[in-house]
Every structure is written in C-alpha cells, then in structure tokens.
Write a structure and sequence with these properties.
The protein is of the alpha+beta class and 167 residues long. It has four helices and four strands, in the order αββαββαα. α1 runs antiparallel to α3.
C-alpha cells in the first residue's frame, strides 16, 4: 500500500509538471503569435506580384481579378485601389459606353523584403558609435556605473523570474 501511495504521488507530480510545461509553451506561443502575423504580412507584401491582381487575355486585354477571387493573404499587399469610370452615350442616345480603369498601388516590396532579411538575421548587425560631448569619450561617474550595474542586475532577475522587462 505504501508503494502504491508513492506511485500515485509520482504520477500526480508528473501530471503537474506536464500541465506547467503546457502552460509555459502556450505563453510562449501567445507571445510569438503577433510576431508570426507581422512576418506573414511582410511576406505577403514581399512576395506579391501584379499578376496576383490582374490577368492578360490572349488578345492582350488586361482585366482586374475580382476581389472575391484574390486570396486573402494577397490582399494584404494592396495599399490603395483607385477606380475611374467614364460613362458616355452615342450621339443618337442608343448606345451607352462605359470605360472603367482600375489602378492598384501595392506596398513597398523591396522594403518588406529587406526587413524580412533583417528579421531572419541574414544581414550583418549595424554598428552604432556613441561619443560624448564634442566627439570625445563618454565619461561615467562612479554613481552612473553603479546605477547601470543595478539596472542590469534587476533586468537579469526579472528574466530569471519570467517577467517582461525592457531590452
């Protein structure tokens, strides 16, 4: 009976550990979800093509693809849609002419691709050089150094305890 009690305690402890790990994983995924959406939006812009929004017939006529027929993710790349319609009729009034022109403006494709490259870490880090007054060295007092060390120690403590802290 004593060994049964020990096994039950071990199983309960294992279940609690699994629950804790699942909660931690869920928290991590929730933090990554907005980042994933950002990457999806940038990818939609970066990999968009005008033929996602227009088609050319065999006769060379260009037609806009209906919004309902464009994949939802492809719509993310559209910055602006402009339509100009001209309606006129023949002199005798029997024929009505309608001429529609649609203009699409897409978001900055090269800019989104450059940002995706940065996010992947494929671009070398940018170097920033800081200087003190009149281009000289930055000087710290002992108090400045002590305050900086205290701030670094506090940030490390917060990270260890799982708290959010500024970078």
């Amino acid at each position: 009976m004593n060994s049964q009690h020990t096994i039950n305690d071990a199983l309960k402890g294992a279940e609690e550990s699994v629950d804790k790990i699942q909660k931690e994983n869920k928290a991590i995924l929730n933090k990554l979800a907005p980042f994933k959406k950002i990457v999806e939006h940038l990818a939609a812009i970066g990999f968009s093509s005008i033929d996602d929004y227009m088609s050319v017939t065999e006769g060379g006529e260009i037609t806009a693809i209906a919004f309902d027929d464009i994949k939802k993710k492809k719509l993310l790349a559209i910055k602006k849609v402009k339509e100009k319609t001209t309606i006129s009729e023949s002199k005798d009034g029997e024929v009505i002419y309608k001429n529609s022109q649609i203009e699409y403006e897409l978001y900055d494709k090269p800019g989104s691709l450059q940002y995706l490259i940065k996010l992947r870490g494929d671009e070398p880090a940018e170097k920033h050089e800081h200087t003190g007054p009149e281009g000289g060295p930055i000087e710290f007092t002992r108090l400045d150094r002590a305050n900086r060390i205290a701030a670094i120690a506090e940030a490390a403590r917060k990270r260890k305890e799982g708290e959010d802290c500024p970078a």
